[in-house]
TrEMBL record:
Family to which the UniProt record says this protein belongs: Belongs to the serpin family.
Domain Serpin: 35-403
Signal sequence range: 1-18
Family annotation (PANTHER family): GH10112P-RELATED (PTHR11461:SF211), SERINE PROTEASE INHIBITOR, SERPIN (PTHR11461)
GO CC terms: extracellular space
Organism taxonomic ancestry: Eukaryota, Metazoa, Ecdysozoa, Arthropoda, Hexapoda
InterPro entries: Serpin_CS, Serpin_dom, Serpin_fam, Serpin_sf, Serpin_sf_1, Serpin_sf_2
The protein's name: Serpin domain-containing protein
GO terms assigned for molecular function: serine-type endopeptidase inhibitor activity
Top-level lineage group: Eukaryota
Xref: SMART domains: SERPIN (SM00093)
Membrane-spanning ranges: none
Length: 403
């Protein structure tokens, strides 16, 4: 008998609170997952842009309904030792993300279940209480109507930035569940760029070839460091709420992006802002807007999650009351970001510690982003301990090679 399907969609908010240890475990697990997934996605040439937390969150929700070797595969790939730690940790993460003042930041989960079916009580309780996920029945046999229902929810949660995520052909009579996570961000820079200073300039896509971009310019004091180990400069651009910032990692050489990625594989991204200082910096940043759609079936299999797609051995027996074998049929994420003089808008519908050697400069620094670079949008200060002040949660990660 053919196993019945679960469709995971990533687009890219407390009853039991997590301890600081559980929250830290989820943050660090997400940071490691971010590096691992980025390494797989970066094998393809061109721009890379995705929301790691959107993928990690919805897989953590599926983790609650897994058993056997499927549970073990999710434990290893999510880098979280137990499903209850993931649940409690995400409850705290969701609460903090949805209560950031001064900017628009929200993250939401949703489960669509086939009409006539019911979730097991424990799975429904944990996804409702810890992941704050509503459950809605839908008739997947009417695929066009079901897709419209799901897409309407996604559009609403991402302020219409992510559209037509689910296609009617993705749904059929074998579909039992659709698990969704949506994240949306819109914020103004703490210090806005002056549009009158924006000029057309060259952006080098390699050592010799360049394209013309609209380059913004701003002089201000920013957190900054020159990382000799990475052979790169690192800059932190804060938003109007300092709990959110964008980190830009710029290789020193025009063709240095590949070497930089190799070195970042050994860096804890949750601590990327350690050892920074705050000089006056002249920042030149290109305006850009990127939309992507990523089929994640292959990348997740490379990360050791082939088990969830295996029709013979996938075990999601703790999700539905009916004793049916469930298997993941498709994992897809759509993501959007726009960066301009005002700030940034983003949406997604899905350890070797390096210490920089820092020398305080006697003159201002020039940070000209005229070559391929890596950026990440992060949530700061999730933990209140002084020793964990710099621990950050990556929300959006990207490599910009062409604008």
């Amino acid at each position: 008998m053919t196993p019945l399907r679960i469709l995971f969609i990533f687009v890219l908010l407390h009853l039991t609170m997590a301890s600081k240890e559980e929250l830290q475990t989820v943050i660090q697990g997400n940071g490691l997952f971010t590096k691992q997934l980025y390494s797989v996605l970066a094998k393809k040439e061109g721009n890379v842009f995705f929301s790691p937390i959107s993928v990690h969150a919805v897989l953590s929700m599926a983790y609650q309904g897994a058993g056997g070797s499927t549970y073990e595969a999710l434990t290893n790939s999510l880098n979280v030792p137990d499903h209850s730690i993931a649940a409690k940790g995400y409850n705290s993460v969701l609460g903090q993300l949805n209560n950031v003042s001064g900017i628009e930041l929200s993250m939401a989960n949703k489960i669509y279940i086939k009409e006539g079916y019911e979730l097991q009580s424990e799975f429904q309780e944990v996804t409702a209480k810890q992941f704050l996920s509503a459950v809605e029945p839908v008739n997947f046999n009417e695929s066009e109507k079901a897709a419209k229902t799901i897409n309407t929810w996604v559009e609403e949660k991402t302020k219409e930035k992510i559209k037509d995520l689910v296609k009617a052909e993705d749904l059929n009579e074998d579909t039992r569940l659709v698990l969704l996570n949506a994240i949306y961000f819109k914020g103004n820079w703490a210090s806005k760029f002056d549009a009158a200073e924006t000029r057309p300039q060259k952006f080098y896509i390699n050592n010799n070839d360049s394209i013309e971009v609209q380059m913004m310019k701003k002089k201000s004091k920013y957190n900054y460091k020159e990382d000799r180990t990475l052979d790169a400069q690192v800059l932190e651009l804060p938003y109007s709420n300092p709990d959110i910032s964008m980190i830009i990692i710029l290789p020193n050489k025009r063709d240095g992006i590949v070497k930089l990625e190799e070195k970042l594989a050994n860096v804890d991204l949750t601590k990327i802002t350690e050892n920074m200082y705050k000089p006056e910096v002249i920042v030149s940043l290109p305006k850009f807007k990127i939309e992507t759609e990523i089929d994640l079936n292959g990348p997740l299999q490379e990360l050791g999650l082939g088990e969830i797609f295996n029709q013979k051995s996938a075990d999601f027996s703790k999700m539905l009351k009916t004793p049916e074998q469930l298997v993941v049929s498709k994992v897809v994420q759509k993501a959007f970001i726009e960066v301009n003089e005002e700030g940034a808008e983003a949406a997604a519908a899905t350890n070797v510690h390096i210490t920089a050697r820092i020398a305080i400069p006697k003159k201002r620094k020039d940070f000209k982003i005229d070559r391929p670079f890596i950026f990440l949008l992060k949530k700061n200060r999730l933990l209140k301990q002084k020793k964990s002040r710099k621990l950050a949660l990556p929300l959006i990660v990207g490599r910009i090679c062409h604008i």
